[in-house]
């Protein structure tokens, strides 16, 4: 196979000879500024800022930054900020874990401060990952892949290659975690090696209302006054980890307007390499499905959210997701912005079509992806609704159907049998309401003639409005809740025949649903496999056209982004580069101290000690997305000047087309963190640790 780098020379000559195409190529930042450490944009940084980092600088930036979450399920970013394993991240990144360890206390609401080292509390299951090595394995991943292979075959060969690569890496480097990362839609494959710190302890968490000040109304907005930070510490051998070689020093005065800043972190997902046809499918099908589910789910959950920290955390997560996806969806409805995407795609296609070698290899990829997007439009509602949802009866029935399905292999049937026998029946007023909502939406998207919808509706489906609560009550009367009956069915020699002939309402629904689920899953996988193959071709073509001048889509792996601290024009006026404590206390007064603009009690008590001129939050042009939460913001000397926690509403359409005219990353200023530690939470020992660490390095 021809590697993308082999195509760079002829295409660069083509672009130099064709001004119309060069215009498209010049819009490199349309794909953003999420740079990989193995391919840093040194020429761009020097041209844009007069700053050209060396390898030592890049290594220090990489090793000070962390990925945070469960070992196999990271969700946020973090950084070492002292030589003694001290880690800074966002409060919302560890909020759920704080709730799990708080016991009879309410540390989520009231905050927690370990005023002595021995008071730092272990957080089971929480880890951070430090990226220590990278290796290009593109050729190894594609080994054995032939030009004539279909999408399913290509997917199987690559999966097998990746498994072998990871196994070999684990054997060669025991004690480390390895991940194969597909960049540029798989055009480039990297093997990342991580050092994992798995003994993390809670040092300090602010009050929920301090981190979440302004609540959902202020979420994804700016100006902002949320002081969203927490500290944890990495331990090794029951002692604070020695991180003296790799941590970011604390800068005394924090961020300043106009200065160059960098964000090392782990952006989760972007869709900048998607074609217009794929984005239109998101706009018309995928996002509306998700938004409707979240909107109705939030309405159901809100009356109960104050009854447990778990429900409140879930609601906050749903509100955050709803606002984020709404912003992306509205961006896709903005014809001016989508027009820029179309123009960028047209110029990219023209560059490919204008080179015979590239045209032969990649010229049909846009048509292929458009056809796949059409197939996805049809299958996506089925993916969303062909599911047991919150019904334990249907879930158990589906597990039985799988266990009795002769088309599945013995291992799959055995696993399904274990699931069916071990399943617990659950249900409450919340799950019942969410289940009813599932079918209200399913009937609108799939129609009343859909076999699954008809099976649940029963006799009501023959005409008129369906009382879904009543229909689901009938299903809940199923014998599938009887453990002995279920075991007898699975043990019977003619169990499959009994299941097929049963008039039990739960069985009828489950045996209708399972083949629909099975076939939909197969179709979805076929589509996704084909999209992956064509997406890799898009990435190869992109890499051939632009080389390393463009950054790949986000992959929840380590990147760094450049930017400047800057305000912007908004709402007919100007947003300042930073907010202050005057604004925090003033906003509380302006809203009469009512939630979500109320101040946590420690801040009310400390009001006279707070320096009102100190900064709270600030804006910058760095390219961030979900997953970057908890990333340190550092200056060109790798000193901490802030902590990323959000983006403004204007940044959400950056998911598919990056702009920086008014899109901004939003950070907590180090002023606010020091004021909080020293004057509100009695954590002078951490302030001392930060300052001593800055002086030592």
Could you please describe the fold and organization of this structure?
The chain is α+β, with helices and mostly antiparallel strands and about 700 residues long. It has 3 domains: about 5-30 and about 270-385, no CATH class; about 60-125 and about 200-270 and about 550-695, Beta Barrel (Thrombin, subunit H); about 385-525, no CATH class. The strands form 3 sheets. Strands 1, 2, 3, 4, 5, 6, 7, 8, 9, 10 and 11 form an 11-stranded antiparallel beta sheet that branches. Strands 12, 13, 14, 17, 18, 19, 20 and 21 form an 8-stranded mixed beta sheet that branches. It has a two-stranded antiparallel sheet with strand order 15-16. β2 (about 75-80) and β3 form a beta hairpin. α8 crosses α23 (about 505-545). The protein is globular, with a radius of gyration of 27 Å. The model is unreliable at about 1-25 (pLDDT under 50).
Q: Any idea of the CATH class of the largest domain?
A: Mainly Beta
Based on the structure given, which CATH architecture of the largest domain is correct? Beta Barrel
Mean pLDDT: 93
> Based on the structure, what is the oligomeric state of the protein chains?
single chain
Structural class: alpha+beta
Largest sheet report: 11 strands, antiparallel
Helix content: 40-55%
Radius of gyration: 27 Å
Tell the overall outline: globular
| Overall tally of structural domains | 3
What is the number of helices? 27
Write the layout of secondary structure elements.
Elements lengths: L7 H10 L1 H7 L16 H8 L5 H10 E6 L2 E8 L5 E4 L1 H11 L5 H4 L1 E2 L7 E2 L4 E10 L1 H4 L9 H22 L4 E7 L4 E10 L2 E6 L2 H4 L3 H4 L11 E7 L2 E2 L8 E2 L9 E6 L10 H26 L7 H24 L2 H19 L2 H7 L2 H21 L6 H12 L6 H13 L6 H18 L4 H7 L10 H9 L6 H9 L3 H7 L3 H42 L12 E6 L3 E3 L2 E3 L2 E3 H10 L10 H5 L9 E6 L11 E4 L3 E9 L17 E5 H11 L3 H13 L1
Parallel strand pairs: 12-20
Antiparallel strand pairs: 1-2, 1-6, 2-3, 3-10, 4-9, 5-9, 6-8, 7-8, 9-10, 10-11, 13-14, 13-19, 15-16, 17-18, 18-21, 19-20, 20-21
């Amino acid at each position: 196979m021809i590697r993308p780098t082999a195509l760079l020379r002829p295409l660069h000559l083509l672009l130099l000879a064709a001004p119309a195409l060069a215009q498209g190529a010049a819009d490199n930042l349309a794909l953003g500024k999420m740079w990989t450490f193995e391919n840093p944009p040194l020429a761009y940084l020097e041209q844009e800022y007069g700053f050209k980092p060396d390898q030592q600088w890049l290594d220090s930036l990489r090793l000070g930054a962390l990925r945070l979450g469960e070992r196999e399920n990271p969700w946020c970013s973090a950084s070492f900020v002292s030589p003694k394993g001290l880690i800074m991240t966002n409060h919302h990144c560890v909020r759920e874990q704080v709730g799990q360890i708080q016991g009879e206390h309410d540390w989520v609401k009231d905050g927690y401060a370990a005023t002595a080292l021995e008071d730092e509390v272990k957080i089971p299951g929480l880890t951070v990952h430090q990226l220590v090595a990278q290796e290009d394995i593109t050729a190894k991943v594609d080994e054995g892949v032939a030009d004539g292979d279909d999408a399913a075959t290509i997917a199987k060969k690559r999966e097998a290659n990746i498994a072998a690569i990871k196994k070999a890496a684990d054997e060669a480097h025991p004690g480390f975690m390895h991940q194969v990362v597909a960049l540029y839609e798989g055009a480039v494959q990297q093997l990342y090696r991580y050092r994992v710190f798995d003994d993390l302890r809670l040092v300090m968490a602010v009050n929920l209302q301090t981190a979440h000040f302004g609540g959902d109304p202020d979420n994804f907005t700016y100006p902002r006054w949320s002081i969203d930070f927490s500290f944890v510490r990495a331990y090794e051998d029951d002692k604070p980890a020695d991180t003296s070689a790799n941590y970011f020093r604390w800068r005394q005065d924090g961020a300043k307007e106009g200065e160059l800043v960098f964000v090392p972190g782990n952006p989760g997902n972007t869709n900048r390499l998607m074609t217009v046809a794929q984005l239109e499918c998101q706009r018309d099908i995928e996002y509306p499905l998700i938004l409707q589910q979240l909107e109705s789910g939030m309405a159901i959950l809100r009356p109960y959210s104050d009854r447990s920290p778990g429900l409140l955390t879930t609601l906050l997560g749903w509100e955050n997701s709803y606002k984020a996806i709404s912003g992306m969806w509205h961006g896709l409805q903005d014809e001016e912005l989508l027009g820029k995407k179309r123009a960028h795609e047209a110029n990219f296609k023209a560059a490919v079509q204008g080179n015979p070698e590239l045209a032969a290899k990649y010229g049909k990829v846009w048509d292929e992806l458009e056809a796949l997007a059409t197939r996805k439009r049809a299958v996506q509602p089925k993916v969303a609704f062909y599911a047991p949802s919150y019904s334990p009866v249907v879930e158990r029935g589906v597990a039985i159907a799988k266990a009795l399905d002769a088309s599945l292999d013995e291992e799959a049937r055995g696993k399904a049998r274990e699931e069916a026998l071990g399943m617990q029946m659950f249900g409450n007023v919340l799950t019942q309401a969410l289940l009813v909502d599932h079918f209200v939406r399913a009937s609108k998207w799939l129609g009343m003639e859909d076999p699954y919808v008809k099976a649940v509706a029963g006799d009501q489906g023959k005409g008129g409005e369906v009382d879904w609560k009543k229909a689901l009550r009938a299903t809940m009367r199923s014998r599938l809740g009887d453990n002995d009956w279920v075991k007898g069915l699975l043990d019977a020699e003619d169990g499959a025949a009994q299941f097929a002939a049963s008039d039990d309402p739960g069985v009828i629904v489950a045996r209708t649903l399972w083949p629909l689920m099975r076939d939909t899953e197969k179709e979805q996988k076929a589509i996704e496999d084909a999209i992956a193959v064509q997406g890799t071709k898009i990435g190869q073509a992109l890499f051939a056209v632009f080389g390393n001048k463009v950054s790949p889509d986000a992959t929840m792996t380590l990147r760094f982004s450049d930017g400047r601290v800057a305000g912007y024009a908004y709402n007919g006026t100007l947003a300042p580069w930073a907010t202050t404590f005057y604004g925090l206390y003033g906003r509380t007064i302006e809203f009469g101290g009512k939630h979500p603009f109320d101040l946590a009690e420690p801040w009310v008590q400390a009001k006279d000690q707070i320096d009102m001129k100190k900064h709270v939050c600030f804006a910058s042009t760095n390219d961030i997305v979900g997953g970057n939460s908890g990333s340190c913001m550092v200056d060109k000397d790798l000193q901490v000047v802030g902590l990323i926690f959000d983006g403004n509403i204007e940044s959400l359409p950056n998911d598919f087309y990056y702009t920086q005219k008014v899109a901004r990353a939003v950070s907590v200023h180090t002023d606010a963190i020091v004021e909080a530690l020293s004057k509100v939470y009695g954590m002078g020992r951490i302030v001392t640790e930060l300052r001593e660490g800055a002086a030592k390095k």
